[in-house]
Amino acid sequence: MRVLVGCEFSGVVREAMRARGHDAVSCDLLPAEDGSPHHVQGDVLALLGDGWDLAVFHPPCTRLTVAGARWFKGREAEQAEAISFAERLWDAPIPRVALENPIGVLSTRSRLGKPTQIIQPWQFGHGEVKATCLWLKGLPPLVPTDIVSGRAARVHRLPPSPDRWKLRSRTYLGIAEAMADQWSASPAQEGP
Q: Which residue did the predictor score with more confidence, 135 or 192?
């Protein structure tokens, strides 16, 4: 399959897809952390019509997550722009789309409505608590692969640092591998 991983600089999902033989490309305004030649630095919207079979989008959550709600006042225009960006990704002419974001305003203020499912890293081999919403079009919900105990909200308790936002936004490897395994083998499904 041709797979577009939008708004990803880490390459975690891209490399999970490539390890399964797919022609996967990531795209972000930032350069690829791993220096991969399979990364486009630029606006993902410019690539939406390029004949992809599957897209996994991670729109920036700064103006969308409930964790930042206290900062929303006075930034309504920025939030509306973030919602519009997520909706444009969702509307891409791609038969299978997964859009990932934390619990936030996409559920209540966008056309996307409630997420298809909410997953946790501890369902995929990581002892972390970090609720992640998935809106799925043409794809089945992810099935947990490795439920672990010892759950902690470590990512939420990271100390302040210039890279804190990067560490908080990174996709867990177990989730990326579940996406690659389960969505690679899945025929396109009808409906959102």
A: 135
